[in-house]
Amino acid sequence: MAAALASSVALVVASCGSTATAPSVIPRPAPVPSEPPPEPPPLPWEQPPASPPPIDSPLIAIVGGTVMTAAGETFVDGVVIMEDGRLVAVGPRDRTPIPQGARRVDATGRWVTPGLIDAHSHVGVYAVPALRATADGNEATNPVTAHVWAGDSFWPQDPAISRLLAAGVTTILVLPGSANLIGGRGVTLRLRPGRSVGEMLFHGAPDTLKMACGENPRRVYGERNTAPSTRMGNVAGYRAAFQGAAEYGRQWRDWQHQYRLWHQKRLRYERALDAGIAASPDGGVASPPDDPGPAPAPPARDFGKEALLGALEGRVLVQMHCYRADEMLRMIELGRQLGLRIRVFHHAVEAYKVRDVLAREGIGVATWADWWGFKLEAFDAIVENLALLTEAGVHAVLHSDSAQYAQRLGQEAGKALAAGRRAGVAIDEDQALRWITAEAAWALGIESRTGTLEPGKMADVVVWSGHPFSVYSHVDLVFLDGVLVYDRTRPDPSLVRDFELGLTEPAP
Q1: Looking at the domain that runs over 51-114+451-508, which CATH code has it been given?
Q2: Closest C-alpha among 140, 344, 336 to residue 239
Q3: Distance between CA 190 and CA 19 in Å, rounded?
Q4: Predicted confidence (pLDDT) per residue in 338-379, tens digit
Q5: In Å, how far from its chain's centre is CA 180?
Q6: Beta pairing class for 182-190 and 207-212
Q7: Does the predicted model carry a pTM greater than 0.70?
Q8: Class of domain 116-231+302-448
Q9: H or E stretch including 272?
């Protein structure tokens, strides 16, 4: 037994020392690199916006005027140079060389500002003449009509359009009215002559959503003996609408997840077929993956919920009609609960009472200089509202809400400036000009593109006969995208709306 064991050990040792080739080890197959999961299909509202058309405008130099930039500087003897729709240079004459070949516009003794922006307009949806036939601003058939768009009601032949242009207004936000809790999406427009709303669009401007709190919705629907008839009904309506939108968003995200899983299975199945894997009768070859079948169908689209979801996600800017201070605070609290951020409170005559909160929250206010008292929630207004808001660091905007008021935005800014100064608020003319230019652009989400006279921005420029806040001043020239669209000395027949042709006798 011992001898046999020794013999076996010797054999093993001899084998280990042998030069004979060891049996080969079957190598493991190289691991297949894992592929990243396929990207889910884009959601319908994630499609990239169309690029704006290129602009061809001449090289123009406005020379010698008092240039108010609305960006903190005023040049008493200034120069504004523009070409191809953009501002090329802005500065004092002695430090701003004028390119050779530029067409000069002599602005000596005149004033130059950015094009004015009206952040709350109903032009085109409550058109002139004010008749039932032209009243298209309120879809007052349901308290929540987020699916409608003001652009679908806009009438590009509204005679008010040319009046606004002659008052220096180059961009407007047209909003639905305030009959509903959620009235629908607004449309940001350029006041260039156009045959359709599509020809007047401000390309790339964010979507906006009009909402209203307070008296209007509860009155409109309360008189019909339906909800909302109280302010608590208002809030319940907002909550239900945005909850439905949040659930709608989850349905689409769930669909994206299911689509990604389906796509992975589909790829595995197709690769197996391409590799020739097929089930054999004797089961000797592995069966291919199961056919995953057709792609999962997406949820049914709801354009109203998409607009509300955009507001929850910050892609759609909420413009909220709200007068009373307590209701503004309630809307801010509700927004925190829902994940909703309000961009601007409109009208907001009591905003001065909560200006510290508005500044801290980064919420703007669009209001008037001195309109008040036309209903109870508009009663506690003060003429110092805009100045106090500006002093507190709020994005303060002077809006019109009226085709007549919009024709004197400069004068209204002067009134609000004077009221603030009388109250001891240290505010300068540049800040007041920003109420109708730079801050209004911020309200619309277009502040990087327009609202000030700075190189690279849109060439929207107004030349005034005098100070833009004076009741004695007229708009002499308006350039929109660097193109002269209004000249007070040479009326342009193209600015006359078709509706007006033949209705009035030509001036002698």
Answers
A1: 2.30.40.10
A2: 336
A3: 90
A4: 999 999 999 999 999 999 999 999 999 999 999 999 999 999
A5: 21
A6: antiparallel
A7: yes
A8: alpha beta
A9: helix 231-274
